[in-house]
Recover the amino acids of this structure.
């Protein structure tokens, strides 16, 4: 089935497409379409048009855009607006086995920001996971270092707290058996941490926003919820009407993202983050 009506392409919530699947993406872009398996029935595939007239924009989710960066001229040539959601957390290897070195990630982020501008480079400090080796104070110090390193290269940072999905619970149980225990904070603790991170970000001219994590409390300064798939931002980048004012009903509760079509495949990211819902 060839589904061809203007849509936002999510590339991808299910995998790190820029880091591991650039060649596939560029070839699909040249062909004007891609085949995407149904996440609930991998034997079934959908054909998604990638023709410029059928794409309102592309949102790239990544921890390492370096493999894709040399090929972005192919997206530019098709006048498709796009931006990056780039996760940099700097967590210990017990939590993120094979993610890029933090300094390497920062350098790559800054390099691409020079080319695209800070509005199209959205940093994700996501998810916040409280463990024996990453307590709240550790996060505040770590986040402050990253804010200083990324100041001027991004305008926004999106964060959330780890969600105990089934796959995540299994991985965290295995982590506990190795001696590192996870602690799920209550609402007051979440609000206190969100307020602290919000203030740190503001001191570096970065607006902290939350993803699917509404925080309330007595704190005077709390981050506001925001969409990761942002139709209004794509419209500003490309000057085209996205026509997507509704939220994506296929996402989890409190998600403010615009509707999008994901072109990734679960189980194909090789970074090995223990908290990830998309791992095998």
């Amino acid at each position: 089935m060839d589904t061809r009506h203007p849509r936002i392409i999510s590339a991808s919530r299910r995998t790190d497409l820029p880091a591991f699947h650039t060649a596939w993406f560029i070839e699909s872009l040249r062909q004007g379409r891609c085949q995407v398996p149904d996440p609930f029935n991998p034997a079934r595939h959908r054909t998604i048009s990638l023709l410029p007239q059928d794409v309102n924009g592309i949102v790239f989710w990544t921890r390492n855009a370096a493999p894709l960066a040399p090929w972005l001229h192919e997206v530019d040539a098709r006048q498709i607006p796009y931006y990056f959601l780039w996760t940099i957390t700097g967590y210990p290897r017990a939590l993120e086995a094979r993610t890029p070195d933090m300094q390497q990630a920062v350098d790559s982020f800054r390099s691409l920001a020079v080319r695209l501008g800070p509005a199209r480079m959205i940093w994700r400090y996501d998810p916040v996971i409280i463990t024996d080796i990453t307590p709240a104070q550790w996060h505040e110090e770590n986040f402050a270092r990253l804010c200083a390193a990324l100041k001027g290269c991004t305008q926004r940072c999106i964060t959330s707290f780890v969600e105990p999905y089934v796959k995540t619970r299994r991985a965290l149980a295995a982590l506990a058996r190795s001696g590192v225990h996870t602690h799920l904070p209550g609402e007051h603790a979440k609000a206190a941490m969100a307020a602290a991170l919000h203030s740190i970000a503001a001191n570096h001219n970065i607006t902290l926003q939350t993803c699917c994590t509404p925080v309330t409390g007595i704190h005077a300064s709390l981050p506001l919820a925001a969409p990761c798939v942002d139709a209004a931002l794509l419209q500003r980048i490309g000057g085209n009407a996205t026509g997507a004012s509704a939220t994506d009903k296929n996402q989890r509760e409190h998600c403010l993202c615009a509707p999008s079509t994901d072109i990734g495949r679960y189980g194909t990211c090789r970074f090995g983050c223990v908290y990830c819902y998309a791992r095998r």
Observations:
- The helical segments are 17-20, 22-31, 72-77, 102-116, 136-150, 166-177, 187-202, 231-238.
- Residues 59-241 form one domain.
